[in-house]
Every structure is written in C-alpha cells, then in structure tokens.
Amino acid sequence: MGTTQLESVPEPKYWHLRTVLTEALDSEFAVGEILPNERDLAARFGVARATLRQALEQLELEGRLQRRRGVGTTVAPPRMGVAVGTEQHAWPGTGEDAWQAVDCTLAEPPASVAEALETDREQAVHTVRRTRMTHGQPVAAELLYIPESSVPELTAIDAPSGAARARAVLRELHRLELEGSEGAVELGSANAGDAKELDRLPGAPVLVVTTRYLAGGRTAALSVATYRADTCRLTFGDSGGVEIHQGPEQRAS
Amino acid sequence: MGTTQLESVPEPKYWHLRTVLTEALDSEFAVGEILPNERDLAARFGVARATLRQALEQLELEGRLQRRRGVGTTVAPPRMGVAVGTEQHAWPGTGEDAWQAVDCTLAEPPASVAEALETDREQAVHTVRRTRMTHGQPVAAELLYIPESSVPELTAIDAPSGAARARAVLRELHRLELEGSEGAVELGSANAGDAKELDRLPGAPVLVVTTRYLAGGRTAALSVATYRADTCRLTFGDSGGVEIHQGPEQRAS
User: Could you tell me if residue A245 is inside a domain?
Assistant: First the structure.
C-alpha cells in the first residue's frame, strides 16, 4: 500500500479512500491479516483520521473488514451463506434445524406482535428464544412468538422453564398441520439483547427475517430472527446459494 | 416532546436518545411530518449535536426517518413490501415483471461475475441494466449478466442498442428452459451508479439480492439487484409478506 494523496479528488474523500482500500485488500492482504494502525494508515493515504475511520466503517458494513477490541482491524473472510429455507415449509425446531432453544417465557406480547398474530394484547404468548450457531459462532438470535391458543394442551407441570420448556412448546406446536409460511427480510439494528447474543455492539446492522407460520387458517407462530449483517449472506432457493463474492465495486463495469 | 436530560444514563447516549426518539415518533408524530431542526432537538434532549446526529442516522438506518436535502428530516412511512419472488421460477422480464429495461451493453464482465457464470473472463457478456419502480419511485437497480453463449442466435442487426436491445436479449433468453434459480440477500452499500438511480448518496445502505438462473445444467444468467434498504422490506413465500412493522424496540419484551 503506497502513499496516495487524495486531496484533488472531487467525490467524498472517504468514499474514494474506501475504493482505494478495497483494491489494496484484494491485492495485498490475506483473510485474517491485521491492518496497520489508524495513525499509520491515515499517514500513508494522506487523509485525516476521521476520514480513515469513515472508510473503515464503510468497509466493515460491506463485510470486508472486522474490527474487534483488543485485536484491531482484520481482513474479513467471505460472508457465510446461511440458508433461510423459504421453501422447506417446516415448523421451527424440526429436523435438521440449526437453531438451539435457549429459554421460554409466557407473557403479554409487544403490541406489534399481538397485531401480527391477530390476538388480543391481553392473550399471553409463549416466547421461545433461540440462537443459531454456525462453525461455533452465533450468527442469529430469534424470538419465536407462539400464542397459547396454538398449543392448548401444553401443561405447566412438565418442563416448567428454560430450554426444556422451549422444546416442550415446540413439540406441541408440531402437532398442528403447517399450511404455509411467508417471510420478509429487512435492515435493522441490534438491540441490547440481540447485540449481546451476537457478540456485537448495540446498533450494529442486522438483517431481520420475519416469518409467519400459518395453520388452521390463522397465524400459529411468528418468528423474528436477527442475523449479523457483517458476516452473513442469507441464501434461498434450490441449493446453497450463489457463491459470488458480492462487493459493489465488483458490479461496476 | 419534553426536555429529557440524558447525562446520567450508562449506555451510549446516542443509543438511549434513539430509544427516546422512537417513542416520541410513535406517540407524537405523524408519517410525513417534519421534525424540528437539529439545534432545537439537541437543546430539548440536552445532548450535543453530534449525539443527536448519530441517533438520527440510526433511525434513518432503521427506516423510521428520512432525511432529504432541502426538506429536512421527516417521519418515514412504513417500509414497502417488495416481493423478491423466490418461488415463481420465471425468467427475468416475463409476465408481471415490475422491472423496466434501461439499456444493454456487451463487454468483458468483472472477474467475480465471470467466476459466478463459470465463463472465461474473455467471453463477452450482455449486461442488461434494469430499474424497478414502485408507486413511481425507484426501489431497486439491477445488472443482469447474460453470457453470449446463453443467447447464441441473437443478431446485432435488430435493436442494436438501448432498452430495445435489452428486450431483444431477454426475448432470446426466454427461449431456454429454466431449470431453477437460487439467490442470496446481503447488506451492501450503493456505488455511485446505483446511488444515482436510487436517488441516494453513494455509500447508502442497500440490500443486494443476487440470483443465479440455471438452464442446460449451467448458469444462464446472473442478476445483481440493489434495493434501497431504508424504504424496502423484501418479501418471499406464499403471499405478500408479513405486515408487522419491524422495529427492534418492538421485539424487546
């Protein structure tokens, strides 16, 4: 990485620096390599520290860099393809499910969840918390909302709490006939709880996948899953997804 | 919105301010309403302008606010559900397609595209540029890469350029039998070209949907579509998607 003066460029400096850094990452750095410190990088490229930080944040957003306290800034591996299985039509918690149940509570749901479930706000909802692990790393945190009316024969006696309770609720849910599911993905930011589970700071960008499971002509369960946007690429369709490494600079002709 | 002093809160100030602002947006502001200016907002909440800006940026990322030059900061309408049709298995440009062809060029593809298409870098690829409009607004920009070998009978004589050329290439593509498609969605940032088409600034967060179309046992076309992350929620599955308004604050129990 040689010295490049960016003074004369008309586009925002950080944006040009981002492009220059992207090229350097492609040609000179290996995955996992630690970048020089900010002071040295700023000096080499002839930019202010603030400009450098803006470019580094951009590259972190794009999944090219990872910044971890105590380690520094490293070159990120390609994002993991994580199947969101829009076509398998299976209940959560069945078969080859990559999710681990953490706990389960019974409470009144947030207003938006009650609305999506088409239940009264007063009707208690089981909330199963699950974590999705890939290669030993947490990649997603999920809240799965199941109205009491979806699992009417569940008793409080057996498995009263924790992961065992979560599994008992899911077993009851699986007795219903799944009629279909529909989902949506959008950009969000990690709240404090998600951030902790995903080993991120609050506010970190996440991909939020909302899935509605239909049974008996109504919504029997609602999943809100939060995926790390820095490390994950969500795949759907016939196979494991497209292997193209997706940086915007590679779409320019 | 009353005065709230945030001095004593241990979490990052901007993050707490974001939560307070979210509640104010829910209870006191209507969609489309213009927020007070930054100086007044900062004074009311007892925070520095920098902290306020950080919170506003966060809320813009979450789709709650829109900031436009010459207008100011307004309360955003709920995100639009935009179907990414992972189950319809149709060629791009057929039927009820929401995309408009803009132009078409023939050139050597970027290295990553050649790799995904499993073609030699030297093999020329038709690149069809399309725009997706919803309610008169551009919501996505797409580059659709079609190797010459997918449309061998295309002649240069008829429709030599522009949108007509793009449509001629798509018509030829539709003669192949589509065997399936697979896709992925991930977070990216708008490059200069996408940003212009989407009426955003370069670097704005986007959802990048990559779709590989399979025919004759190989990749016959590759689509890289860039959706505005601030205004779009990508839906898939049996129907038009889940209507829950998805702010992370609503997932907290």
Answer: no
Residue of B nearest to A105 (CA): B253
In angstroms, the CA B208 to CA A245 distance is: 11
Asked if residue B241 is part of any domain, the answer here is no
Interface contact flag, A113 B87, Cβ < 8 Å: no
Q: Which residues of A187-208 are buried (b: 16+ CB within 10 A; e: fewer)?
A: bbbbbebbbebbebebbbbbbb
Q: Tell me, yes or no, whether A58 and A93 share the same domain.
A: no
Q: Are B178 and B215 in contact (CB under 8 A)?
A: yes
Number of cross-chain residue pairs from A and B with Cβ atoms under 8 Å apart: 234
What distances in angstroms separate CA A86 from CA A20, A220, B102, B236, one per listed residue?
38, 17, 31, 7
Angle at B220 between CA B217 and CA B221, to 5 degrees: 145
Nearest in space to B116 (alpha carbons), one of B226, B213, B227, B215: B213
Residue A2: pLDDT over 80: no
Contact: B246, A194; criterion CB under 8 Å: no
Complex-level ipTM beyond the 0.90 threshold: no
Q: What is the DSSP letter of A174?
A: T
Residues, chain A, total? 253
Beta strands per DSSP E along chain B: 65-68, 72-75, 80-83, 99-107, 125-134, 137-147, 180-189, 205-215, 218-228, 232-237
The per-residue pLDDT for range B211-227, each reduced to its tens digit, is 999 998 899 999 999 99
